[in-house]
Amino acid sequence: MRALSVIAMLLWTGASWACNSGLEVTASGYEPGHRPSQAVDGDPFTYWMCRGGGDECWLEIDTGEAVQDDNLIIKWDSTYDAPLDAEFDLALSVDGITWKTVFSGTKIDNSWSPVFMFPTQWFRYARVYGHGMSGTNENRLQEIDFELGDPGSEIEFNQRSIIGVQASSYLADNTPFGAIDFDPSTHWTASNGEWIRFELAGGRHPVDNVRIAWLNPHLQRASFDIEVSENGSTWEPFYSGVSAECLKPVAECQLRLENNYNSFMWGMCAQYVRIIGRGNDGPRVESRSKNSITKVEVWGPDTSRRSVCD
User: Fold this and answer.
1) I want to staple 302 with a disulfide (CB 3.0 to 4.6 A). Which of 156, 216, 220, 274 is the partner?
2) Where on the phi/psi map is residue 182: left (φ > 0), alpha (ψ -120 to 50), or beta?
3) Contact indicator for 60, 127 with CB cutoff of 8 Å
């Protein structure tokens, strides 16, 4: 019975998977014969179709991991004789929770290029909200995909070495070293508003991703801020958010590293990174004012050929 319920849910939400592109595709819904996967199958005679206005019709692709890009191919159905105006928004997200709208307007499919440019940024999810075509409530998206650039221009990313860790405080034996000792049974724990700070080896580096493994992510979501500093005294905001709930087996959840990206192309220059805990929504009221981190990694672009922090 549970398997049938899952299948019914997928049909209702319009969930589907691309056959050729490797992109996972979901949608708010679809008309019979026009599934979400038909927007990524490379076939010019098929399309995803949804009827509705406002934000009730949307299609989303998941690349499987965060990528850095500045454009997408978005081609609306143009099988009719006359050009069709497609009104829509394009929003991007790294975590599927916080979205940034990079396009909002009308496109005449027969007269515009299907390649949509936007400032270079990190994203894993791309969502198109259809607001109707040529005065109707129909949305027919023929193709959405990446316009791949020159592979030789790709940027490699390296993990930054951490040579020091400090914290404003800690509880019991849960010292700051528990966040970098590679031991899944140890962690740093402190009260709400306290911070843990990491010093990077080799001076200043561009930083664009701070990966955090929170304690018990299958039970609670943590609220937090991330700040960076070049000198350890002047701090700049890097990221603010809430961790995601882990739905995998408990053993897999305990050391699940969650990405927290900054959208600057080359990252922010930093020698120090600190995480400020803002509590959690766990089931135990007495523990909601605490923050516990089991592992932290800091990542940034390879600057062997170009340094932006000199």
Assistant:
1) 156
2) left
3) yes
Boundary (domain end) residue, out of 153, 187, 206: 153
Please report how many Cα atoms fall inside a 13 Å half-sphere around the Cα of residue 16, on the Cβ side.
Answer: 23
Q: Please indicate whether residue 285 or residue 266 has the higher confidence score (pLDDT).
A: 285
Q: Is residue 307 part of a domain?
A: no
Mean of the per-residue pLDDT values of the chain: 80
For residues 31 and 18, give the distance between their C-alpha atoms in angstroms, rounded to a whole number.
17
Report if residue 306 sits inside a domain.
no
Consecutive H or E run containing 24: strand 24-27
Instruction: Give φ, ψ of 75 to 5 degrees.
Output: -120, 120
Q: Is 160 in contact with 228 (CB distance < 8 Å)?
A: no
Q: What is the pLDDT of residues 221-233, one digit of tens each?
A: 999 999 999 999 9
- C-alpha separations of 49 from 72, 137, 139 in Å: 19, 10, 5
pLDDT tens-digit map of 163-193: 999 999 999 999 999 999 878 889 999 999 9
Distance of CA 45 to the CA centre of its chain: 31
240 residue type, one letter? S
The number of CA neighbours under 13 Å toward the Cβ of 229 is 12
Tokens encoding 16: 């589907």
What domain range includes position 37?
A: 2-153
Strands (E) in 84-179, as ranges, are 85-93, 100-108, 115-133, 138-145, 157-160, 162-167
User: Can you tell me which residue has the tokens 């998206």?
Assistant: 141
Q: Which two tokens stand for residue 27?
A: 């949608």
Which residue in the block uniquely carries the two structure tokens 């990221």?
A: 239
- Residue 199: strand, helix, or coil: strand
More confident residue, 242 or 307: 242
Write out the two tokens for 155: 């940027």
If we measure between CA atoms, which residue out of 186, 210, 185, 208 comes closest to residue 197? Answer: 210
